[in-house]
Amino acid sequence: MTKKICILGSTGSIGVQTIDVVKKLGIKVVGLSAHKNVELLIKQARDLNPDILCIGDEKYYTLLKENFPDKIVVTGEEGLISIATYPAADLIVNALVGISGLVPTIEAILAGKKVALANKETLVTGGKIIKMVLSQKQEKDSLPILLPVDSEHSAIFQCLVGEEKKNVKKIILTASGGPFRGKKLKDLQNVNVEDVLMHPTWNMGKKITVDSATLINKGFEVIEAMFFFDIRCEDIDVVIHPQSIIHSMVEFVDGSVKAQLSYPDMRLPIEYALSFPERGKQIAVPLDLVKIKNLTFEEPDFDTFFLLKIAYECAKKGESYPVALNAANEEAVKYFLEGKIGFVDIMKYVAKIIESHRVQKVETIRDILEIDAETRQKFKNLVEGEIS
Ligand SMILES: NC(=O)C1=CN([C@@H]2O[C@H](COP(=O)(O)OP(=O)(O)OC[C@H]3O[C@@H](n4cnc5c(N)ncnc54)[C@H](OP(=O)(O)O)[C@@H]3O)[C@@H](O)[C@H]2O)C=CC1
Ligand SMILES: CC(=O)[C@@H](O)[C@H](O)COP(=O)(O)O
Ligand SMILES: [Mn+2]
Q1: Average pLDDT in the 333-357 region?
Q2: Which of 90, 164, 210, 252 has its CA 20 to 30 A from that of 83?
């Protein structure tokens, strides 16, 4: 089992649940990072006594250093890399949100760390580069460097233990359907931030909760699965499963289907990643199928939740398309949460950006960051032009 870890994004939903898990497993936390929530970071540092702390926003550096004069305190993007590559850590939990997670993941792998990856935007934007970096670092027949935390990918990873890649026919990603399952576009015109943040089964950070409502989260997860499991998007299906008990499935060439089930509780996939290749303790509540009674399934509504369809198209086209999709979506969610655009506008503007996107080759991290910046600028020009 991993002995010493750093948590990037320790103040977020995954970060806080990771701390709960590591306390129960007796894992030592040597590094923590937050972006703005310095109060919670200070509390966590008092509780866990790590060696190194990072606060993303430089304006909180002095406050943090005053509280911990004897610790290593770092800030900004470089500070985040110091935590991702901190020599005493064997494993890094990447619980950052958005493209901010990409470079720390790459640096951690290059520094020889294992990475428990919750930050799906890493693989959406940088899947091709991560694959290249892993091919240099991953030794044949040794345990995987990159471990999934996203619940669906953890489920698939668990279903694939002991299986040969040639026997996998397809992956079936389950989706809750979000708060607007069964609704049509006309019903969504006036929904507000509160409605959108009312996820039916999971309690998560705001950005991913909005993504679940548009179903682009599932589109991102298709791309994430392509890179995690080296599979084409044509061989990944999405099925709506409103109870979020089956976290995903794998169908094999003989027609057999394996699934992983549990109540929706992210502590289980976090624990699995931190304990792998062992199993952890019983942290999550045991499943009672008799009480649950019904597990149901539906086809996704690709017409209403058209970003899922667009995400599949971007997944197929590859190169700069997923980068642009992510950048446009990050901006759209930000504008929505700031009350500047409506919920349907998220989908409409992201679709417009992708419609006008011209493919560019992605060979380096720099290419990704440039496409990301260009797309965000394009998004701002488009939306500011229309709302002013
Ligand atoms: N929450 C969940 O249940 C699940 C989440 N995921 C994925 O895990 C990742 C984390 O999600 P979640 O925990 O919900 O997100 P949260 O928004 O709750 O937490 C994000 C964390 O990252 C920090 N952060 C935010 N912006 C930056 C930045 N620009 N630079 C550095 N640090 C930053 C935040 O710091 P601060 O608090 O100081 O702002 C916080 O610690 C996402 O990629 C999400 O898609 C996947 C499956 C389930
Ligand atoms: C918990 C988790 O892994 C999320 O990504 C979850 O899947 C979101 O729910 P949706 O299925 O509604 O997107
Ligand atoms: Mn998920």
Answers
A1: 98
A2: 210
